[in-house]
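I had to read the description of the data format several times before I understood it. The format is easy to grasp once an entry is in front of the reader. For illustration, here is how one protein appears when written out as sequence plus structure tokens:
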Amino acid sequence: MPGGPPRLTRRGEFLAAAKAGRKAGRPGLALQALPRPGGPLRCGFTATKKIGNAVIRNRCKRRLREAARLLLAEYPPGWDIVLIARDATPTRPWDKLLGDLRGALRQAGVPEPGAAGRRETPPEEAG
């Protein structure tokens, strides 16, 4: 996914995630995650006018898109994820913004990369 995960583009997709999705908040962003078994991992981005003018809102969305591009490529399919900018998004240090996204994904219950085949004990000790 060189350009990042496929996008949510229709209003109804955003509303479905807002209504039925799992929610998580961090200082740098808010996240809504809706499980969609059998589908790809898709992502949408939004920033309200409360954040600031168009320049600031666009900067927030660019930062969220880049964070999603870097982190979500490793996550398993089957989720619609909406990332919502907060007041701290445009000025949050980059490493903390990435940490906010990781933590929000964990809080919303999105399985971490490699979690599908993970065992509690290594195979050689299980016997």
